[in-house]
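step=encode ok
step=design start
structure_in=
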């Protein structure tokens, strides 16, 4: 696959990005599909998703279409991006050149901006691209291509506004990466007001980080201080819309509802959910449109927060879940540690009732599941419990409403490692420190050891040690040997025979650095003072 040409440099992204596994896995899972289509309003995260993917792939061509760009100009820029000997003079020549260049990925962004003739050529390319030429198309409007036909034929997959919307897990991780103090209730309120729209969700979090305030009250402060700028963003986007689309939007602002489906299709700040079509809440608030809400529109589920490092804790809205029995709690923990938080009934019976009569074991499982639902329902009602656990068929937990420390821990280390490999030491340290804050002690520290989680205790400790080692190396690279040495001390407190920890101490001791008082700096970043005997043992 060709490298990305300097003729089409990828745009710079905001700092402190987090990985979004659901989007990344979608792109990778459908890599062989001819067309992957991102269709959602501006500010939904399409560009970030595409650029992050292209950076990770390290190859292909990226073109951001320009306003009224004609086909010839598009083909010339695509030729430079693919290092073709000459620019194709026609669409047929482009197909010949692409057939020779395959396999290759081509990402088109802002295609709705191009001239009508260029849109027609891209539409033809979607249908006629040679085998091995896969397209990623980013646009606010689904109307530019026949999406329904392509989805039905299996030639395309669609990532829409709903899939791109931030969830509680991602929002919490970004708050942690930005150093914004938040509670589950704060996260739930932000997502209710922003509806997961990336521009608003990340905008409020970055505003909170910039102003040094917690997330509580940050949305209202953002509306008060930056709402005018966001209104200008909406106005600029409307400038690129057609006259018909602008008229439909202004009719919506005036109270007309008939244009809602058209505006949703064209990505002009209208969403569709179980309550019907309506403008985004923040657009309605800032632009004066009254959203059409169903009378019984439900309040979004409060995230359940679960801590599995150290002492096990599970809460909803700050209230602990009143478990009925230890076995019910163990079944819940087991599901949380599963990769997809789901297990078949047979698997659960084999794990928790291996010697029991099959009929009695099945009854015991049904009782345990009912008790879990009952415990959760005590806080949110019996119907509300269905948002967190499903017992139809396989037993599944809904991670869209559950924030688990072990998952956030692994995600931060993964993000930290990616930033470390890129040489972004500040960003890597931020992620490693976030993981550090989550690790309160060994996994399920107060539980009696059991075969279903015992191997994971060592696995998570190894990950924690790895994050401390990497953090120490980042401090060395930044000229902070005092902080690197403290990371090494903590590694050796957990693993006295750790070769990497001893190497890190020797490297830190030999590295020049500022003369700032170690205790003062340690307090500033939250590193603990270790026993003096650890330091003595290390430095000899």
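sequence_out=
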């Amino acid at each position: 696959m060709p490298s990305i040409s300097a003729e089409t440099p990828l745009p710079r992204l905001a700092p402190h990005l987090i990985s979004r596994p659901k989007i990344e896995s979608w792109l990778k899972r459908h890599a062989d599909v001819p067309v992957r289509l991102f269709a959602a309003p501006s500010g939904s995260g399409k560009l970030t998703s595409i650029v992050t993917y292209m950076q990770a792939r390290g190859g292909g061509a990226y073109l951001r279409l320009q306003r009224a760009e004609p086909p010839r100009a598009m083909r010339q820029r695509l030729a430079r991006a693919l290092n073709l000997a000459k620019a194709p003079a026609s669409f047929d020549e482009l197909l010949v050149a692409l057939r020779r260049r395959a396999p290759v990925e081509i990402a088109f962004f802002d295609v709705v901006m191009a001239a009508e003739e260029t849109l027609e050529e891209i539409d033809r390319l979607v249908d006629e691209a040679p085998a091995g030429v896969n397209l990623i198309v980013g646009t606010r409007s689904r109307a530019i291509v026949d999406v329904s036909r392509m989805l039905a034929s299996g030639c395309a997959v669609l990532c829409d506004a709903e899939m791109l919307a931030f969830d509680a897990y991602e929002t919490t991780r970004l708050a942690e990466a930005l150093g914004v103090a938040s509670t589950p209730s704060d996260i739930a309120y932000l997502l209710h007001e922003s509806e997961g729209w990336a521009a608003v969700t990340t905008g409020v979090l970055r505003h909170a980080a910039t102003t040094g305030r917690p997330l509580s009250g940050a949305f209202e402060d953002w509306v008060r201080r930056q709402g005018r700028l966001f209104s200008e963003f909406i106005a600029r986007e409307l400038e690129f819309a057609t006259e018909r689309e602008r008229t439909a939007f202004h009719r919506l602002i005036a109270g007309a509802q008939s244009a809602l489906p058209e505006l949703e299709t064209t990505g002009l700040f209208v969403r569709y959910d179980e309550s019907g079509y309506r403008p985004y809440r923040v657009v309605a608030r800032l632009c004066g449109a009254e959203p059409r809400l169903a009378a019984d529109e439900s309040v979004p589920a409060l995230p359940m927060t679960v801590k599995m490092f150290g002492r096990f804790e599970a809460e909803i809205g700050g209230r602990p879940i009143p478990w009925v029995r230890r076995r019910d709690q163990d079944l819940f923990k087991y599901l949380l540690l599963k990769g997809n938080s789901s297990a078949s009934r047979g698997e659960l019976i084999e794990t928790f009732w291996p010697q029991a009569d099959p009929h009695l074991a099945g009854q015991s499982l049904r009782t345990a599941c009912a008790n879990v639902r009952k415990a959760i329902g005590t806080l949110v009602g019996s119907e509300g419990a269905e948002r967190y656990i499903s017992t139809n068929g396989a037993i599944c937990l809904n991670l869209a409403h559950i924030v688990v420390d072990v998952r956030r821990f692994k995600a931060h280390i993964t993000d930290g490692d990616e930033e470390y490999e890129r040489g972004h030491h500040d960003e890597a340290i931020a992620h490693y420190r976030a993981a550090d804050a989550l690790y309160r002690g060994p996994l399920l520290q107060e539980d009696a050891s059991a075969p279903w989680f015992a191997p994971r205790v060592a696995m998570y400790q190894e990950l924690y040690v790895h994050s401390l080692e990497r953090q120490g190396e980042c401090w060395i690279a930044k000229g902070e040997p005092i902080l690197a040495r403290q990371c090494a001390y903590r590694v050796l407190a957990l693993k006295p025979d750790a070769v990497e920890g001893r190497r890190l101490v020797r490297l830190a001791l030999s590295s020049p650095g500022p003369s700032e008082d170690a205790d003062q700096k340690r307090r500033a970043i939250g590193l603990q003072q270790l026993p003096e005997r650890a330091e003595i043992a290390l430095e000899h």
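step=design ok
step=annotate ok -> The CA atoms of residues 311 and 446 lie 6 Å apart.
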